[in-house]
Specification:
CATH topology of the largest domain: Rossmann fold
CATH architecture of the largest domain: 3-Layer(aba) Sandwich
Oligomer: single chain
Largest sheet: 7 strands, parallel
Number of helices: 8
Number of strands: 13
Radius of gyration: 20 Å
CATH superfamily of the largest domain: NAD(P)-binding Rossmann-like Domain
Distance between the termini: 59 Å
Length: about 300
């Protein structure tokens, strides 16, 4: 099998590229070659907006579009491809507005989400353009992705707190729920779509169960080998200044996904994998000044 992966050098697209290389797939990656490449891939060095005839003599069994963020991203890649057998786009749960009934199903009306704003509306535009140009394409809408290679300062922030044996500032009582999806499970879902070509073409993807932020933090600390001492924060402080996530709770219905893949990664085991990777690659994580904000504004 021969596939094209957009990106291939950062978190999700990098993990996807490595996953399929290790499966023995002939993996091509499309990127500008500004970062190290996954061993074993074949590089198509270009900006997706300046492909011209670069792909005209190439054919792929599947296109895994991990880095499409707006309609123009879709238009420029699709027009450059000679023929399209299976096209899978990674979208986002940000396409669902925060005030619709939960859990969100794939048929939930899409419009601006006040937390995600343009990111979500651009993803809606990308989805619409893809289905206009490739009507039988597949669209995946994940919640928070995690696992090895995660360069976002989410679980890594909690790991840092745990390593430093710091008190943890918890929003309210810590009962807000989060939904996660291991990046390996995303790859398994993609693999099964390529193999099975299901009749459904839009899938929410994610763990069937959500977790409270308190339980999530405790799991992260447990992976490091310690327990958190919580300080509950009730003051009107912008949550993203001292915590990894917006103060926004939502849930995706992933029942269609669960007909395609058999089970998902245990959250604790997935976090252990994330910690093992972070211990070796901390410099690759884009750290936000959460600890500095806490030290300067919240410690007594």
């Amino acid at each position: 099998m021969k596939i094209l992966v957009t990106g291939g050098t950062v978190f999700v697209s990098k993990y996807v590229a490595r996953y399929f290389v290790e499966k023995g797939v002939d993996v091509y990656v499309l990127n500008r070659n500004t970062r190290p490449q996954v061993e074993g891939v074949k590089l198509v060095e270009a900006d997706r907006h300046e492909l011209k005839d670069l792909l005209k003599d190439m054919s792929f069994d599947a296109v895994l579009d991990i880095t499409a963020y707006d309609a123009q991203d879709i238009t420029d890649l699709v027009k450059a491809l000679k023929d399209i057998k299976t096209y899978i786009m990674l979208s986002s749960s940000a396409v669902y507005p925060e005030d619709e009934a939960m859990p969100f199903v794939e048929e939930t009306p899409r419009r601006e989400n006040k937390y995600w704003k343009r990111y979500g509306t651009d993803k809606i535009a990308a989805e619409d353009k893809l289905l206009e140009l490739v009507p039988d394409a597949y669209i995946l809408r994940p919640p928070y992705l995690y696992g090895p290679m995660d360069n976002l300062y989410r679980e890594a922030f909690v790991f840092d707190c745990a390593k430093g044996k710091r008190q943890f500032f918890l929003p309210n009582e810590g009962q807000m729920k989060l939904q996660f999806f291991h990046v390996r499970d995303l790859c398994r879902m993609i693999e099964n779509i390529i193999d099975l070509k299901p009749s459904e073409h839009i899938f929410n993807v994610g763990n069937p169960e959500a977790v409270t932020v308190k339980d999530w933090v405790e799991l992260c600390y447990e992976c490091v080998g310690t327990k958190p001492e919580f300080i509950n924060v009730y003051e009107p402080i912008e949550q993203r200044n001292y915590f990894s996530f917006y103060g926004y709770e939502y849930m995706l219905d992933v029942s269609k996904q669960m007909k395609i893949i058999d089970g998902v990664t245990d959250l604790k085991e997935g976090l252990k994998e994330a910690l093992d990777w972070y211990n070796e690659h901390a410099s690759e994580v884009r750290k936000k000044p959460l600890l500095e904000f806490i030290d300067n504004n919240m410690r007594k």
